[in-house]
């Protein structure tokens, strides 16, 4: 018995454009981890918000699949939709940005490897929370370049700006993040 050959992304998009929800679901399954990672970074590490942003973006993508011309991957096409979901969320909850960060219980030095992993995870969560306080432009630059480790050319294409514009943006974003880290250094002790 011959194994079934998976559909290419181009074929799945064509089927989704004809109203095939299973094809759209397959596109989401293929790119799901990458898309959730994007959303999680934009959401400052808050899984519930990341899921909400991703769901909103996927709903917009499903409704607007006819606008996808296939000039990039599905996940690249979805990036600005996800970014816009974040912008809409920020507009709805602008007052929430001013809430102070809470420091979790401190853990003593000399911890076991498992505890060290938990501490690293907690610190990364604090870092994501600080990133979420930056402008959307700074967030997307840091997310794509530093968290997703994309090449500058690909990140610039996703954002829709020239590489020469992205390079100083990432420099300034890193400076702003460093300032926030210093201001909240007690979170990282």
Structural summary, described in words:
This protein has two domains: 1-99, Rna Polymerase Sigma Factor, Chain: A; 100-189, Winged helix-like DNA-binding domain superfamily/Winged helix DNA-binding domain (Arc Repressor Mutant, subunit A), CATH 1.10.10. α1 crosses α2 (21-42), α2 packs across α4 and α6 crosses α8. Helices cover 67% and strands 0% of the residues. With 189 residues, the protein is an all-alpha fold. The chain contains eight helices and no strands. The protein starts with 8 loop residues before the first helix and ends in a 6-residue tail after the last helix.
List keywords for this structure.
about 190 residues; mainly alpha; Rna Polymerase Sigma Factor, Chain: A; Arc Repressor Mutant, subunit A; 2 domains; 8 helices; about 65% helix; disordered N terminus
Looking at the structure, the CATH topology of the largest domain is Rna Polymerase Sigma Factor, Chain: A
| Radius of gyration, taken over Cα atoms and rounded to an integer in Å | 19 Å
Tell me what the CATH architecture of the largest domain is: Orthogonal Bundle
CATH class of the largest domain: Mainly Alpha
**Strand count, sense and closure of the main sheet?**
none
Strand-and-helix sequence, N→C?
HHHHHHHH
- Helix-residue proportion: 55-70%
Strand content: under 5%
- Give the number of DSSP strands: 0
**Oligomeric state:** single chain
In whole angstroms, the N-to-C terminal distance is: 59 Å
The CATH superfamily of the largest domain turns out to be RNA polymerase sigma factor, region 2, helix turn helix motif
């Amino acid at each position: 018995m011959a194994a079934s050959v998976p559909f290419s992304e181009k074929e799945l998009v064509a089927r989704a454009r004809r109203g095939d929800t299973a094809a759209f679901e397959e596109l989401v399954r293929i790119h799901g981890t990458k898309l959730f990672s994007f959303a999680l970074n934009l959401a400052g590490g808050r899984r519930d918000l990341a899921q909400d942003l991703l769901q909103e973006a996927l709903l917009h993508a499903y409704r607007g699949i006819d606008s996808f011309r296939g000039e990039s991957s599905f996940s690249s096409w979805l990036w600005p939709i996800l970014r816009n979901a974040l912008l809409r969320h920020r507009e709805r909850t602008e007052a929430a940005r001013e809430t102070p960060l809470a420091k979790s219980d401190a853990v003593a030095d000399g911890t076991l490897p498992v505890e060290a992993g938990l501490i690293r995870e907690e610190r990364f969560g604090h870092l994501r929370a600080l990133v979420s306080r930056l402008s959307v432009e700074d967030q997307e630059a840091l997310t794509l370049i530093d968290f997703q480790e994309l090449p500058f050319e690909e990140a610039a294409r996703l954002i829709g700006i020239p590489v020469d514009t992205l390079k100083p943006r990432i420099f300034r974003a890193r400076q702003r993040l460093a300032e926030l880290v210093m201001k909240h250094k007690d979170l990282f002790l």
